[in-house]
């Protein structure tokens, strides 16, 4: 096995730490060196905390030497999306309006990382307030896809996905409101999981749309996601939407799946999530993966979810409505930026000038949309109708899951597009989330697993697996089986060519 620790999976690093083959200090330093070497061109990180990470690594090593590691992942470094509050570390949400803001507390998921002893390497780049599918809406410059630096790494969590794909971190946290973990996973060839809504605490996650947001793992293997998911998941009294019941056994499900046996599992291909407009190479890889599931013993049928065609429109009413109200708190009085338009300006003038200077175009666009959808006279027609369609989408899922155990589709309609290609066309940008949004609207879990490279451009394709709420274990079982069969076929993981990174 390679001695380049950045090339190992989190599970392998954990084993090596346990066996005394390496120290957390060495592993953490290797990742910091990798960040120093490649993050110039990739720009996955907004903030690197070398000193903090090495101090946490030293503590981890001391604990282990004393025979008392805190968790299986104690000492394995991780990167955190910059939308999660980190005590003592800047948290900008990719926005100028929060430049320089250092939260006085940790998000629950971050507190869990620290309590388990994972050194935090830094904060990863993202579309401003998690609005976007390309990370180009970051106020601090775009992240570049390690597979091709001229292309987008997906969004909004392109930083976390690129960091993991480029071996800058073995693990990362992302957030998925409409696809921001799964779609970046698809286009960077990494694994991304959106847990069941309420399965992972949102406390300390700067809200984009509270009823849709969910924190989840970004990794290179299905098993690593299961390990991280079990660590961050579970009930949190600080989040009123957190589910008060234990998670299903995710690591066990991943290990079971890795045997490659899916007999007894019924898989439904979602009719509405393919067809016209889907890249041919994406569909080819998708179909090949479906064939592998059949080979593993799964029964595959086609299932129609007719209301899914309205998911995008529904999402783009509900999300802006919630976002416009969430972002009202950035008023120059409480956090971050404050712009004085003139001496003696009124509070209203300061707020206006600050929000004008501090928010980017996409954020403003959604605040305007959301405010309009919620305004009296329009509320019933827009927001109210969207909520009704949301219920219909949930019912389509319920009906589908009466027929099958999991639903599958390609994660995104295309591979990574060129930077700048869709920046001036919001609708084209929104269309990337066609296949990921229904899960957020219904609160069900989903995983994106790398399914190979599209023939026409050599870029990664993602395979999405969706399960009923609270049955996240099914995503891991089927995901791990697919991964095992694909790795056998490829003879090892597909990784971005090193010469692309300079
Ligand atoms: N790309 C979607 C959007 O722009 C998803 C965002 C997300 O999941 N945070 O809203």
UniProtKB/TrEMBL annotation:
PROSITE patterns for this protein: AMIDASES
Record has Nucleotide-binding as a keyword: yes
Top-level lineage group: Bacteria
UniProt xrefs under Pfam families: Amidase (PF01425)
Catalytic residues identified in the record: 81, 156, 180
Keyword terms of this UniProt record: ATP-binding, Ligase, Nucleotide-binding, Protein biosynthesis
InterPro entries: Amidase, Amidase_CS, Amidase_dom, AS_sf, GatA
Domain Amidase: 26-475
Enzyme class per UniProt: ligase
EC number: 6.3.5.7
KW Protein biosynthesis (keyword) present: yes
Catalysed reactions, as listed in the record: L-glutamyl-tRNA(Gln) + L-glutamine + ATP + H2O = L-glutaminyl-tRNA(Gln) + L-glutamate + ADP + phosphate + H(+)
Family as reported in the entry's similarity comment: Belongs to the amidase family. GatA subfamily.
Subunit structure: Heterotrimer of A, B and C subunits.
Function (record text): Allows the formation of correctly charged Gln-tRNA(Gln) through the transamidation of misacylated Glu-tRNA(Gln) in organisms which lack glutaminyl-tRNA synthetase. The reaction takes place in the presence of glutamine and ATP through an activated gamma-phospho-Glu-tRNA(Gln).
The protein's name: Glutamyl-tRNA(Gln) amidotransferase subunit A
Organism encoding this protein: Nocardioides mangrovi
Phylogenetic lineage: Bacteria, Bacillati, Actinomycetota, Actinomycetes, Propionibacteriales
Gene: gatA
